[in-house]
Design goal:
By secondary structure, this protein is an alpha+beta fold. About 30% of the residues lie in helices and about 35% in strands. It has 3 helices and 8 strands; from the N terminus they run ααβββββαβββ. α2 runs antiparallel to α3.
Length: about 160
């Protein structure tokens, strides 16, 4: 079996994120569009695009684990919602919250369900890590997931 490369992991994830029925249905129902998927975007640089939904797949460090039996990659996934509607007023006077704050939890959960399932099916070990802080700033909301991915290596032990 050939070792999966970072490009292979991107291909697996992008194929799943563009064809996952639950994610596609939710995006269409709430935004009438599919998310744009970007690879290698600096996670500190939210693009000022007109897209309302984006998923950023961001590689981090790489290494070897389990006495060189596995190649490891840290990997972040950012779910970004941009919604240009006005802030919603809450039941408390003078308190406002972005409408998309409520939607980001569902969006990032659907992404995670799709990602974990497809990586496991491809013999990639997924270990959750603490990611960057979520970012909320009108009109964007960004949720961050971070993982350590381990793929079998061809190095002799």
């Amino acid at each position: 079996m050939a070792t999966k490369t970072l490009k292979d992991i991107f291909d697996i994830l992008s194929a799943e994120l563009t064809t996952n029925a639950a994610l596609a249905d939710w995006c269409t129902e709430n935004f009438s569009t599919s998310p744009v998927i970007r690879f290698g975007v600096d996670d500190n640089d939210i693009p000022q695009s007109s897209e309302s939904l984006e998923i950023h797949l961001i590689p981090g460090s790489r290494g070897r684990t389990r006495q060189f039996a596995y190649r490891s990659y840290t990997f972040s996934i950012n779910a970004i919602i941009k919604k240009s509607s006005e802030d919603d007023e809450t039941d408390i006077d003078n308190v406002y919250v972005l409408e998309n704050l409520e939607l980001i939890d569902v969006f990032v959960s659907l992404i995670e369900e799709a990602v974990i399932t497809v990586l496991n099916k491809n013999s990639i070990i997924v270990t959750p890590m603490e990611g960057d802080e979520d970012a909320v700033g009108y009109p964007y909301v960004v949720a961050n997931l971070k993982y350590l991915l381990e793929v079998p290596s061809r190095l002799p032990i």
